Amino acid sequence: DIVGAGVHVTDAALKEQYHLDNDQVNLQFARVKATDFEGEVQPTEADLKTYYDAHKEDFRIPERVRIEYLKYQPSAFEGQIEVTDAEVQDYYDIHREQYNKAEEVHARHILFHLDENASEQEKAEVHKKAEEVLAKAKAGEDFAELAKQYSDDEGTKDKGGDLGFFKRGQMVAPFEQAAFGLEPGAISSIVESPFGLHIIKVEEKHPAQTQTVDQVRTEIVAAIKKERGHDLALERAQADREKAVKGETLEALGKAEGIALETPSPFARKELIPGVGRQPKIVDEAFAAAQGDVPEVVDTPAAFYVFRVVEKIASRVPELAEVRADVEKAFRKHKTEELAKQKADDLLKQLQQQKDFPGFAAANGLTVEDTGPFSRAGSYIPKLGGQPDLKKVAFQLTNDKPVAPATYQVNG
Q1: What's the whole-model pTM score?
Q2: Which of 59, 167, 229, 291 is the most buried (most CB within 10 A)?
Q3: Which residue spans within 233-366 are E strands per DSSP?
Q4: pLDDT tens string 203-222
Q5: Full DSSP string of 174-199
Q6: Are 293 and 309 within 8 A, CB to CB?
């Protein structure tokens, strides 16, 4: 407060900040596409050799690793686990709270939206409509059909106003109090909430109860097997890893466990492991280990992995013949973008001498597009993406000098 008391904000400063926050620009632009110049690029072998020699590192083949692995999935070990009645009871006693089921109500409703700023006349009209629909519901007309016809709740009206089951604390207080106070089949009087006026019909009620151990036995057995399956999979993986370190083959260990040995093709640090996907832990361990090593067991959300580094393939720059297709593709991209930029720069020089951009573009076979209005915030420009240089320039352009001083590259 002491510091703030000494700060004086002038009207000029306010005005400047207002414009910084709220000014918008709409740009016209035309694309000179690199793809339009593809027919002009016919590289010779000498062109490719020159380009390759200047960009060899762009074609470097990264270091790769080849591994073989066994995948220990906890679910595969669950069948080996027997669960006793005593274990089920112990689990139930420890987790008893999760088997306490709260009271639930299954209800439908018809909503009549009522704006909080509505006039007394508007409120009276909505109340009258709600009373008329309530009378129809009380008279025995199909509640779901009435909801489809009259409800303002777009989320439920097509489902006949069906809200499904809900517990206490999930609805606004007036609605909840009314719904839990009704018996199945009963229809409420008009209930007012912050959303408007409601007519509520209760379809079913589930009283609060604690499920018995017998009611949840199947669920408990599955939970115990899942926990033990995880522990058993880890235990077997660690034991087999120790055997592999001492010289046993993963293939033999896998056969003993009924797990197939997988031998994916070599992969680089930033590539997916074939058949495994993106597993940074395996990648890090594989590249840190020496050839022939069996790293520590890798724990992933789906499984445990035991693997051996079969081969380390050093990074190298390939010969031109190995990557000729890639070199030609890169050369064509480079040359077509170079030609497109040259053409765009030439057009820009001509455009700077006039103001009729659409006419100039049409005369040169270009199509003019609008970005649409945008503000200073960030670097993004609609239709052009992240363009920080152009974003800065855009707000410096004027009616007298409306043309940006440079060309800008966007996706070719």
Answers
A1: 0.60
A2: 229
A3: 267-268, 298-299, 304-313
A4: 999 998 888 999 999 999 99
A5: HHHHHHHTSPTT-B---EEETTEEEE
A6: yes
